[in-house]
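Changelog excerpt

This revision adds worked examples to the README so contributors can see how folded entries look when concatenated. The first example is reproduced verbatim below.
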Amino acid sequence: MAGMNEVNISHIRQDFLMPTGGLEVLRDINIDLRGGEFVSIVGESGCGKSTLLRIIAGLDKPTDGEVLIGGEKVNGVSSKVGILFQESRLLPWYSTEKNISYGLPRGMDRNEGRERVRSLIDTVGLNGFEKALPSQLSGGMQKRVAIARTLAGHPKVLLLDEPFAALDAFTKMNMQDEILRIWEREKITTLLVTHDIDEAIYLGERVVMMSPKPGVIKKVIPIDLPEDHSRTSDEFDAYRREIFKEFFGSDKRMSQWFSDD
């Protein structure tokens, strides 16, 4: 998807002080996201992908380097960025519409806010559940509320931190379709971090592969899938094999991984 860069991640390094000394978590991370692009970052636990997301969101400050969003340096939490975590983090005493309202910008006109909430409930397919409490919703429906709340403030950039990892396989695939549909409708610049190779391919226009200790970018793979994003297509399978081989190398391990295909 063409467009000017919305996010510029330049020479990010992150060190943590541990009891045994300094620990380099991220080393020289450079990624640019075009406006409206969907990019996936995939890597095993410990590669620093969630740390990178926190830096982009302004929750953590990098040891070195900088992040620009819309040409402005990130120096803290900003309404320009919405972040969706693995946990839905809904307020249990709030209804669906009130949880979504919690994400509205401060000072928004009340009528405009109500219309925004109604529009988002329609967007995520929760009509009829406006008054339901989180405990009355399934895990997938709770995730839809969380997505709507994240979008309520009209962020320019959406960050997804393994948002579907806690869901069962069927719900997870449905939510992947949902986030893809919302992304296509909202045209919002989106960055996903995940350890799920299939998820990274299915959702991303590019897949950024990270390796750990310290976290570095190993390879960037452009993704060009059929329009239906079929998980059983030859193209999808080719990307899976390419990424798996890049991470694990061994043809024997690959044959074991794909033995059920």
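The second example, added in the same revision:
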Amino acid sequence: MQKKVWIGLEGMEFYAYHGVYEEEQKIGGKYVVDVWVETDATLAEQTDDLKGTINYEQIFKVVEQNMKISVKLIEHLAQKILDDLREFISKGDKIKIKIHKIHPPLGAKVGASIVEMEDE
């Protein structure tokens, strides 16, 4: 019987240039990204070998690379990250991503705008 575990990185912070408005793409802003993968890590538990689980360093590199490419919508950004993660995470594993755009320019104090996406 497979035992599923969640493996992830929370609170990855980036300064990036995403946004619909030209000002956002010039000035940039702070983003926080969380990624979780639900996988079967039985092999890693039994062998203490990284090959039996998800290497979260690879997750970080995918997120970091995508944060460097300016896009208008964080929904689009989340999908691009999911697509790139799927290159090394098996289709049977669930991926969840949450992107926080810290203090979006809305004319009032707002902690963050958020997009959360799940791919099964």
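Reviewer comment on example two: The mean pLDDT is 94. The CA atoms of residues 4 and 40 lie 5 Å apart.
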